[in-house]
Amino acid sequence: MTQVNNEFLKTIHQFDLVIWVVVSRDPNPEKVQDEIWKKVGFCDDIWKSKSQDEKAISILRILGKKKFVLFLDDVWERFDLLKVGIPLPNQQNKSKLVFTTRSEEVCGRMGAHRRIKVECLAWKQAWDLFQNMVGEDTLNSHPEIPQLAETIVKECLGLPLALVTTGRTMACKKAPQEWKFAIKMLQSSSSSFPDNDIFKEDLIDCWICEGFLDEFDDRDGARNQGFDIIGSLIRACLLEESREYFVKMHDVIRDMALWIACECGRVKDKFLVQAGAGLTELPEIGKWKGVERMSLMSNHIEKLTQVPTCPNLLTLFLNNNSLEVITDGFFQLMPRLQVLNLSWSRVSELPTEIFRLISLRYLDLSWTCISHLPTEFKNLVNLKYLNLDYTQQLGIIPRHVVSSLSRLQVLKMFHCGFYGVGKDNVLSDGNEALVNELECLNNLCDLSITIRSASALQRCLCSEKIEGCTQDLFLQFFNGLNSLDISFLENMKRLDTLHISDCATLADLNINGTDEGQEILTSDNYLDNSKITSLKNFHILRSVRIERCLMLKDLTWLVFAPNLVNLWIVFCRNIEQVIDSGKWVEAAEARNMSPFAKLEDLILIDLPKLKSIYRNTLAFPCLKEVRVHCCPKLKKLPLNSNSAKGRGMVIYGEKDWSNELEWENEAAHNAFLPCFRSW
Fold it and tell me: Where is the Disease resistance R13L4/SHOC-2-like LRR domain (predicted)?
């Protein structure tokens, strides 16, 4: 904005006055008034003797007759223009107000009509900005400095604030040694963190379990507060939205946050963060004694064989490592540990002392090779969050373990376990015993669950608690079941994800509506002419995956999932149509519905009989990606030249298949020809 102001000052323009004022974090209204008056009058003794209100009247009298442009730099909060005498710019006076701020919330409070976000700069822009901050004298003071300066610019990763701050800091440093030291400091800190996306829900769950969000007794209130904080951080450009539901933090901002958390660098051992640093062994454990929070995620550590002393440790991230062995004793001297993440590792067995971590509130074992949970697991009575998603080798959870975790608020068991056996095991008999134990968890709010029998599903649907908190549902191995009335999904008000897999006899997913008490599971013969006669709305459902259901012929019920984002249909050899129009014409309200209005990803794999996705072309306003593999009879996609406009959609498929596709007209063919990629 400085450059814009300077251009106005040296060129002919349409404004009577060009005024520049730095507001700063603690604005002084009278100082702002003095800066304005310098442009319109004289700051003499008479002016200085006036009160703030008198100055405001004088400024308003002058500016009210002028066409002005006012630049306000570094605005931290809403600035009351009228309070200092600035008339509001409007169509009548044709004046303009331009301001800079670090927070988008300030834009809203100031009533900004147009917002321009300063993104990270490309190399040339970053280099030019840095040179302007440092100055030619310093850059030319030693032959080595220009090359060292380029290295620093690269470390700033295009972040304007980092470039400006670092540039000003280096402006007076003319010895190469000083520049080399600055580079070392930048490199040592920025390498501490991997450039990972963070799922917003996971971040909030950690905050809840660490006690950061303790203003509310109910979990929903805490979650809302968490989302509000994340939103504020995004609007302040301290977090970036990388994709829907995910955020990330710029490396330089991350380093600054760590520095502040360590009391501006005064407390060196409060945080130990070496994520993504390429470690194959633990860092020296002698330095762990004062550590409160530690992140060693995304490394190549295979064994934890030492016994560190960590009396103050609250949070430990060991996820995304090659961990196979955790020796007995590793967690022995961590009495205050509250958050532990071992996900995405090869750990198959937990050391016994982990069950003595009575302060533990958050435990993530997802995507591990854990084979069983011992009875001692029920000692973790303070657990609020337990993640067992995709622990596909987990075969044993003894009875009364789950029901003993009375403080659990979040339990994730999606794609969890496989063929559990044994009488004292809640994973046997299709997980029906597990469902019974879930009824004992009075604080449970969020549930992801795997169900492997019709009776277990029926038990779930008889429980308002389980229906009300289920977010992800995986139905597998419903052998002997021919028909499933999925009207029950309407009662699952929080259901986001539905996977149905390996139901070899399941021939029909229908929506008939059920009377109270009527079973929704039948093993009667499949009626080929069944129709959907009752309109339902599964408006929360966003992701559906149907896999290895060999008798299914269509998925017509999907028309009643208007917010569906992801659809996978895989290894279903009898699927002929995704939407069979003949099945839902009798639902009068459905005739005006347009399926897949929110769909972003459509994956179709190994569907040898598939002929049609939908009989008519669809707008697909959100569609980003289509993948088709081994669907030889699918000769037409429901696309016309106006479908998925402006989305930059990509279609993956075999070359022979794409060449043989039929199109509505040549315009449609030409519109999508650039979208195809070989798969």
Answer: 297-463
Tens digits of residue pLDDT in 248-263: 887 777 777 777 777 7
CATH number at residue 150: 1.10.8
Nearest in space to 366 (alpha carbons), one of 342, 393, 388, 383 = 388
Q: Which two tokens stand for residue 541?
A: 């459902």
94 plus 75 within the same structural domain: yes
Residues 182 and 202 in one domain: no
Q: Are 446 and 468 in contact (CB under 8 A)?
A: no
**Does residue 447 lie in a domain region?**
no
Q: How far apart are CA 271 and CA 317, in angstroms?
A: 12
Residue 430 pLDDT grade (very low, low, confident, very high; cuts 50, 70, 90): confident
Beta strands, E only, 325-414: 325-326, 339-341, 362-364, 385-387, 410-412
Residue 215's domain comprises 198-261
DSSP 526: P
The residues facing 248 across adjacent strands are 240
In the DSSP assignment, the letter for residue 386 is: E
Q: Is residue 611 part of a domain?
A: yes
553-576 CB burial, b ≥16 within 10 A, e <16: bbbbbbbbbbebbebbbbbbeebe
Q: What would the two tokens of residue 337 be?
A: 């540990």
For the chain, the domain total comes to: 4
Pairing of strands 293-295, 325-326: unpaired
pLDDT tens per residue across span 152-187:
998 888 888 788 878 888 999 999 988 988 887 666
Q: What is this structure's pTM? A: 0.79
Write down which residue in 156, 190, 224 finishes a domain. Answer: 190
**Could you report the per-residue pLDDT of 220-234, keeping only the tens digit for each?**
888 898 998 888 888
Q: Which residues contact residue 632 at a Cβ distance below 8 angstroms, ignoring those fewer than 6 apart?
A: 608, 657
- Last residue in a domain, options 61, 78, 109: 109
Within-domain flag for 498: yes
